[in-house]
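Table S2 (text version). Query chain:
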Amino acid sequence: MSELVLREDQDGIAILTLNRPETLNALSPSLFVELRSHLDAIAAATEEVGCVILRGNGRSFSAGNDLKAIQAGETAPSPHFQAETIDAMEALPQPVIAAVQGHCYTGALELALGADFIIAAESARFADTHGRWSMTPTWGMSQRLPRRVGLSQARMMMYTGTPLTGNEAARIGLAALCVPDEQLTPRTLEIARTIVQNSWHTLRADKMLSTESQRLPLPEGLKFEREKSPGRGPDMEERLKAFSKNR
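Corresponding structure-token output:
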């Protein structure tokens, strides 16, 4: 049996690929089990992995939850395993980029929203279709989508189920940027390589501080940053010396 989630490491970047192209990478419970295993390993590898890319094999990122698996009675290891796996990805110390082409529907959108930001291809189509199937979100849609795009835009997506293009997603802030399909992989890798060139100490601190501060009112968030910022990293002196030498 082929792996449902592939992992490739390139110079401090871990690339996770949803690998069910024949089903448009539909999110079965078994796929989530493999994804969780990779995420747990990456969370413990802060000295080896500085950035994570999540992508889909084939013409789509993912068509969403595997309805056929649901009908067949396939179940996850625990009632909220999928949601907790997305939580685990969001909680990774390393920055996470979701590279999205083609379908990114419902459960797939909830998964992509667990990334720090999304890079969309022009072919990308983002939609919440819970209403089409008389389902309700439990993987984070009602919480993460409004925080990403604002309540009004989120409600329009959730109420109508109308897909947004990659360009539309970038316009409303759902995606950080939109690129032609042939540039999705190289542009995502370029951004990831730029990220890992920076101090991993700072990257982890930036993610922790910005994540925690989003849960607080501004005055408390500012206080949290002052009190909880980890301070200078172990590579600061080396970086300053290299800067002075190259001036």
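Notes on Table S2: Residues 200-246 form one domain. The beta strands are 5-10, 13-18, 51-56, 96-100, 103-105, 117-121, 125-127, 164-165, 177-179.
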